[in-house]
């Protein structure tokens, strides 16, 4: 069982059940004379149902409760809020520990960050689930042991069954009350009379019981049996075992047992005269003076109680007020409605729109061997001209007019084909990856995927597919038809993963397996208005697959670099005026604000430096992006593409460096902690541990780290060494990079 399934139930039942228990406290205290104890016992049964039943009903209020950045749709909104808030709280503690004394509390801060990541990733939930189950089993074992011990003690102390004239009177009493008789035994020693057992109950009587109290005691225990109170005892124990961590549940178990005794008293005295009620009350009072009930974990009903509980019972027996029928009926309706509302912990799903099933015509491309780049391009063109992609937005320019790039994956034996429209024309990136045998491994329609992500904020849809058979069957039918047409293979299993709305667009992610060939992977499908595969990947778990993934990552980086290079090349001739953040139009200002947060956060620019930046929007290949630069260095253009982090054109013999944020953030940490100001042994060690080792983007050698710790390098030398470790020897740097190095030295007074 998944941890999410258990914690959905536990957190929801704990929160709503605890509220119901707290509401019961004043209700039973002040409204008992008007509602009767039997109605209060029924209300306790409603509380128990909320604590034990793993039911979740749709509730429109839950649609607003799910956190905006929820990543696990198996976790319902209430539990997801608890997880997100817990992770945020631990993260804030980690930040506070880091800010308090960075060097000394670094270990504590890293531990807290690990805990925060474990909470978000679900690892903490699995650990807590194991601990929870262990304690729950221990509590259940303790209850079983107490019951077994009690039953064995009664069996050893059993003297004889009820017989003679007493048995005749007992049977007459059962006939009078309309209750099926159960065995009755005299037991010694026994604290007080009780109904024992669940499946085969019997009444145990102490030898010290007075003859004149016999019928009253038997009547009381028979009413317990008629009401099924032994079963309610089992329900109480189950609640305590499942919710062992909640003290309110243990309190509710004790109070409900007291209310159960008072409800039994009401059944006993219902046909009695005033004189008989007083005599029954006297029997309770005399027994309470010298006897006690079994403990709460034991499945036995005790007749007597002590202290204020017995006083309350005696007062209720003597007064015997009639309850208001209409008020009880109204209270019953309100209680049932409130219980149904307490189960409303699932989102109310929107009505499912009917997607259009695409119609494909023409034969599918037969798989064939591909050994050269020319064959790979020709094979890709045949694939993309086939039915499933004829209406792809990325291919609207026509295959012959597109720009093609073929990359040989080398040892992975893969071909990676990327397609762009001609410069200045509409369209976008489309990529294919297939092996030497022509088997497709990856597909991505970059334009359609990017448009989906830009169409609006991601909101979880997560329909319950089990209750939407037609909907799921339609998706499965489309997926199988697509696999046979495109892959010339079929899927053995299909499972639904994430399901989300992006504005008015809906995307469903499915996982598949091919058992015989040991393949698995993911498909991302745009649902509305027409079903369309945006992304597809296939993977195995052997060394060949690892090499393929590495080659695929390299190809993806190459595609990203190409997009950035094209944007940067266009930006060089961009003669529109760059404006400060506060002078931009509202639509551009929002994107520039994102860039500003990137500069001061991820890149670690000082606020004064970031305030010098100016911005201008651009459009290329149907993509809107932002160009911005430091006003003091206009040749250092940054480009912020949709869903791609900003990058600067710092170049060297090693090529462009898209990960500039690593070294930028290092200078941010240095300035924040003041390490270069003091540069003592403790500061040098913190510089290595808290900055270089913590951010693996800077490839410092062990010898260089040792020199820094030993004080062999001055601050100026440490800055120079950091730049060279990241960007290579200075002889390979661009003028822009040298200018930044000089600005960094001046920033730290070197």
Description of the structure:
Helix 1 crosses helix 5. A nine-stranded antiparallel sheet has the order 8-9-10-11-16-15-14-13-12, sandwiched between helices. It has 750 residues and is α+β, with helices and mostly antiparallel strands. The chain contains 26 helices and 20 strands. It folds into five domains: 132 residues, no CATH class; 161 residues, no CATH class; 181 residues, no CATH class; 74 residues, no CATH class; 87 residues, no CATH class. It is 52% helix and 15% strand. The chain starts with a helix and ends with a helix.
Q: What is the SS-derived class?
A: alpha+beta
* Gyration radius, rounded: 37 Å
Unreliable stretches covering 5 or more consecutive residues: 463-467
Query: How many domain regions?
Result: 5
Describe the structure in brief:
It contains 26 helices and 20 strands. It has 750 residues and is α+β, with helices and mostly antiparallel strands.
């Amino acid at each position: 069982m998944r941890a999410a399934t258990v914690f959905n139930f536990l957190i929801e039942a704990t929160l709503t059940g605890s509220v119901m228990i707290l509401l019961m406290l004043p209700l039973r205290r002040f409204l008992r004379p008007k509602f009767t104890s039997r109605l209060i016992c029924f209300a306790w049964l409603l509380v128990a149902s909320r604590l034990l039943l793993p039911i979740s009903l749709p509730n429109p209020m839950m649609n607003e409760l799910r956190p905006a950045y929820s990543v696990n749709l198996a976790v319902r909104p209430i539990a997801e809020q608890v997880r997100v808030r817990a992770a945020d709280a631990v993260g804030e503690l980690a930040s506070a520990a880091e800010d308090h004394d960075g060097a000394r509390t670094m270990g504590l801060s890293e531990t807290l960050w690990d805990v925060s990541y474990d909470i978000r990733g679900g690892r903490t939930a699995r650990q807590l689930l194991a601990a929870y189950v262990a304690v729950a089993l221990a509590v259940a074992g303790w209850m079983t042991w107490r019951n077994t011990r009690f039953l064995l003690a009664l069996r050893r102390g059993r003297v004889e069954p009820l017989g003679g004239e007493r048995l005749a009177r007992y049977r007459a009493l059962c006939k009078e009350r309309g209750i099926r008789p159960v065995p009755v035994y005299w037991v010694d020693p026994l604290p007080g009379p009780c109904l024992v057992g669940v499946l085969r109950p019997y009444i145990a009587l102490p030898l010290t019981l007075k003859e004149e109290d016999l019928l009253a005691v038997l009547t009381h225990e028979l009413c317990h049996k008629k009401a099924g109170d032994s079963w309610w005892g089992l329900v109480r124990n189950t609640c305590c075992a499942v919710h062992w961590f909640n003290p309110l549940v243990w309190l509710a178990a004790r109070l409900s047992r007291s209310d159960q005794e008072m409800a039994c008293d009401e059944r006993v005295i219902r046909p009695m005269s005033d004189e008989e009620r007083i005599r029954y009350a006297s029997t309770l009072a005399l027994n309470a003076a010298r006897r006690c009930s079994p403990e709460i974990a034991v499945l036995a009903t005790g007749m007597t109680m002590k202290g204020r509980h017995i006083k309350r019972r005696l007062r209720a027996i003597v007064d015997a007020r009639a309850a208001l029928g209409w008020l009880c009926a109204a209270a019953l309706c309100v209680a049932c409605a409130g219980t149904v509302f307490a189960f409303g912990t699932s989102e109310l799903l929107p009505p499912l729109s009917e997607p259009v099933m695409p119609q494909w015509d023409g034969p599918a491309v037969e798989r064939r061997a591909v050994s050269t780049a020319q064959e790979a391009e020709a094979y890709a063109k045949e694939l993309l001209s086939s039915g499933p992609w004829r209406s792809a937005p990325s291919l609207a320019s026509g295959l012959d007019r597109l720009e093609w790039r073929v990359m040989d994956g080398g040892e992975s034996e893969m071909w990676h084909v990327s397609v762009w429209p001609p410069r200045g024309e509409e369209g976008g990136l489309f990529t294919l990856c297939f092996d030497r045998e022509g088997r497709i491994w990856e597909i991505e329609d970059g334009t359609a995927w990017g448009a989906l992500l830009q169409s609006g904020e991601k909101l979880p849809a997560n329909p319950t597919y089990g209750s939407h058979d037609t909907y799921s069957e339609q998706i499965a039918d489309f997926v199988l038809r697509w696999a046979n047409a495109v892959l010339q293979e079929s899927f053995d299993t299909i499972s639904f993963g994430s399901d989300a709305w992006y504005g008015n667009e809906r995307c469903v992610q499915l996982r598949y397996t091919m058992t015989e060939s040991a393949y698995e992977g993911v498909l991302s499908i745009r649902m509305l208005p027409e079903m369309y595969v945006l992304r597809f990947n296939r993977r195995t778990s052997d060394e060949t697959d690892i090499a393929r993934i590495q080659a695929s990552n390299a190809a993806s980086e190459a595609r990203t670099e190409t997009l950035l290079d094209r944007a940067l090349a266009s930006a060089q001739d961009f003669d529109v005026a760059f404006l400060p953040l506060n002078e931009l139009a509202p639509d551009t200002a929002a994107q520039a604000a994102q860039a500003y947060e990137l500069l001061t956060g991820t890149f670690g620019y000082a606020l004064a430096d970031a305030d010098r930046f100016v911005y201008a929007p651009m459009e290329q290949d149907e993509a809107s992006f932002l160009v911005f630069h430091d006003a003091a260095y206009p040749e250092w253009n940054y480009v912020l593409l949709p869903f791609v982090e900003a990058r600067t054109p710092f170049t060297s013999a090693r090529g462009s460096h898209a990960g500039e944020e690593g070294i930028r953030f290092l200078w941010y940490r240095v300035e924040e902690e003041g390490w270069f100001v003091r540069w003592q042994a403790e500061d040098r060690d913190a510089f290595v541990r808290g900055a270089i080792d913590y951010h693996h983007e800077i490839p410092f050698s062990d010898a260089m780290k040792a020199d820094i710790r030993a004080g062999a390098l001055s601050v100026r030398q440490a800055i120079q060494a950091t730049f060279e470790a990241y960007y290579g020897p200075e002889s390979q740097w661009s003028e822009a990079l040298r200018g930044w190095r000089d600005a960094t030295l001046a920033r730290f007074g070197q």
